[in-house]
Amino acid sequence: MSxxxxxxxxxxxxxxxxxxxxxxxxAPRLTWLTLALMTTSSVASLRAAPTMAVYGLACVFLYLVxxxxxxxxxxxxxxxxxxxxxxxxxxxxxxxxxKPMGFLAVWCQxxxxxxYYPSLLAYVASTIAYVVDxxxxxxxxxxxxxxxxLYWTGVWISSRGTGAVAGLASWGLVxxxxxxxxxxxxxxxxxxxQGNASAxxxxxxxxxxxxxxxxxxxxxxxxxxxYSGMEMNAVHVSSLRxxxxxxxxxxxxxxGLVLLIFILPALAISWVVPSNQLSLTAGVMQAFDAFFQYFxxxxxxxxxxxxxxxxxxxxxxxxxxxxxKGLLLISREEGYLPPFLQRLNRHGIxxxxxxxQGVVTTAIALMYAFIPNVSSAYWIFSVITTQVxxxxxxxxxxxxxxxxxxQPDHPRGYRxxxxxxxxxxxxxxxxxxxxxxxxxxSQFGGSSVWSYxxxxxxxxxxLGVIIPLCFLKFRKPSWRNAGEDARxxxxxxx
Amino acid sequence: MSPxxxxxxxxxxxxxxxxxxxxxxxxxxxxxxxxxxxxQANNKAQELSGKLAAQGYPxxxxxxxxxxxxxxxxxxxxxxxxxxxxxLWLQNIxxxxxxxxxxxxxxxxxxxxxxxxxLGVYCPDQLAKYQDRFEDIKTAQTVKH
Lengths: 494, 145
Prior knowledge:
The structure holds two protein chains of two kinds.
Chain A: H1 13-23, H2 32-43, H3 49-53, H4 58-84, H5 89-96, H6 99-132, H7 140-158, H8 162-193, H9 214-222, H10 243-272, H11 275-278, H12 284-294, H13 300-334, H14 339-342, H15 351-370, H16 372-376, H17 379-406, H18 419-436, H19 449-474, H20 482-486
Helix pairs in contact in A: 1-13, 2-8, 2-10, 2-13, 4-10, 4-17, 4-18, 5-6, 5-17, 6-7, 6-13, 6-15, 6-17, 6-19, 7-13, 7-15, 8-10, 8-13, 9-18, 12-13, 17-18, 17-19
Chain B: H1 3-9, H2 11-31, H3 39-54, H4 62-69, H5 83-92, H6 110-122, H7 127-134
């Protein structure tokens, strides 16, 4: 750990505690390119391309506006913070606001993933089913087995060290997103190059989405969240050779890749497949099938399905490795979690946090697979968890402004231009997304708006406030650095 | 650490991942069935075209309908109203996120209406249950046509 990682007053016992807490945790060397690919893998894949292709040229607007008000602030602010402070969001918020707030931030980042994995893996199971036998997608036992096997394999790989995660996530992105995405764009270009008219009108009148009042506002504002996760891999910043210089580079590359992955393949599909025909397709895979059928290369549909599976699993690995590491780091420093959860395995990985998270995820996933009422209502969790995630961004932007004021001379490898403006923009965007999260979506039907607000607000309060408060309230002084003692003798950095 | 070093340290994880993905790929290509033009597929495509036109929807190319839906509706008709399919469907009415930022929106009603037309032509026995599932869905015209 370099001197740069210390807080401004980093000469005291607190800094030594922090150093002891962090030094044992796995930190293999990563290149900035690998970290960029990991970040891209966490955020973007081709999964949404058919959904967004329905909007035609307006999908550019639907991705660019959120990019300006949310992606740019998130990426630039986290680039500055990571170039000055190690440890990711927990340390930024701890330094800028307070340690309990730092814990709250990383808890929110961690807790929301518990509900994310079952829905992601259910999608993966349905994609595999599309390749093997589409009727399997309705089979609870099949879905449960796929979720369990893939999730626990992910936990096993994550517990082998960040290196394994980095490699698989990077290759998952390349073979599952970048190559198929390039193929879609090239085929779209060939389609136009042959003199065909674009299926979706590509004129100024279609640059903006249809305006239907609240529904359009919900669509535009909720799209801010397309870029959530850009800051997550900053927890691995200490694995870079020269974090102050390399992390911003990594972030800029990831930002460019994410934009390209979201926008170009969706546009390419909209050129070839009319939006009303996309409506004929009962899922992502059939939309790809319709695209490839035009070129009489339908056999590429299972190829892209396998690519989507690889990309989704690679992205899942980054989410398994990232927030849990941040949670461990602050818990070892401040004793926010019981000693059992602070233990590391011989690869320096927070295995017990991963396994505990796995037990909870398993229970949720089994309910998802076997209890129809749970699966049908599962979309509610995605609203609650995104609300919880927005707390992270609210805290991060406030912390960034305070760090500029409190520690103006702290060495930073990169200083974001107009940081306060960026933070205020990001804050307003996050707050708007949180408010819009209380507007009932299609799935809620015509039921009472207030019951929806109570449901989402209650979930937000429980997951994002009450549970972390309980950890803070019931912690014991002896838990601080307890994991250090509990570590196996062979433990240490991988 | 270079990617090469990652590979050497975690060789068996990489080999396992490659074997699983290649196995899935080969299975997928072998199992993949191209929908062929036949009398029944063409008749059903014509019937669907007629219903789409009658409801005021643009009518896609006949060949595209045949290649996407064949004569049995393909994956569209595989238990479309089952709980898990329903859950995936509901999750897909969402924003453009592919990570944990995925969240529901107020979707365009056209997809639900058109799928009901497809089911009515290709697997009418599934239609009533599907309509039961989606009768309460709130939609808006968020797509410019």
